[in-house]
Design a protein that fits this description.
It is a single chain. With 198 residues, the protein is of the alpha/beta class. It has one domain: Glycoside hydrolase/deacetylase (TIM Barrel, Alpha-Beta Barrel), CATH 3.20.20.370. It is built from seven helices and seven strands; from the N terminus they run βαβααβαβαβαβαβ. The chain has helices at 32-42, 52-57, 59-67, 87-105, 121-129, 149-156, 173-188; strands at 18-24, 47-50, 71-74, 111-112, 133-134, 164-168, 192-193. The strands form two sheets. Strands 1, 2, 3, 6 and 7 form a five-stranded parallel beta sheet that branches. The chain has a two-stranded parallel sheet with strand order 4-5. Helix 1 (32-42) packs parallel to helix 7 (173-188), helix 4 runs parallel beside helix 5 and helix 6 packs parallel to helix 7 (173-188). The radius of gyration is 15 Å and the shape is globular. This is Polysaccharide deacetylase family protein. Its EC number is 3.-.-.-. Residues 17-194 form the NodB homology domain. GO terms for molecular function: hydrolase activity. Keywords: Hydrolase, Metal-binding.
Amino acid sequence: MAEPGTTATSPLPAPSGTLALTFDDGPHPDSTPALLDALTATGHRATFFLCGAQAERHPELVRALDRAGMAIANHSWSHPSLPGLPLPAVHEEIHRTNRVLTELTGRPPVLFRPPYGASSPAVARIAAEAGLTETLWDVDPRDWDGTAPAEIVAVLATARPGDTVLLHDHGNRNTVTALPAVLAALTARGLRSAALPH
């Protein structure tokens, strides 16, 4: 479920000295627990843009993320390119995921990231009608494309306060391997990863 190298800025502000690590496509049993362990061990928080089908398949992982203080957000049901779908299908992709995430966490998500960063005025309108703020990213190390852990760390070394960073939680071991070094480097720079407002 790869994302293209699109770069777009999140509309959401971050507190001074923080940036936002975000993880798309999960939850996944081969990556979510390790990502969560690395984040909680260092006091960092992140935002997980979850696919509804994956959330339904692994509800215990959604609840674990929520209990740990991570932001839970909507990344569609099955990760299609939404602008190419009929509008009723777009509605179902977004609202079905909202229903599952609300059921699992006890509150509706407020953030939405369209798969591949691909949106349109109609997609944005449907998301807004569902109470969601469309949220993209500033920094993309292309971890979905087999980027080596050291390169992921190097790209994230360029991230600045207020940036939203795109990462993936779909069983990618390179991301899991890179994350402890990423978090250590952020801490050394006096930066923290914070969950986006949720």
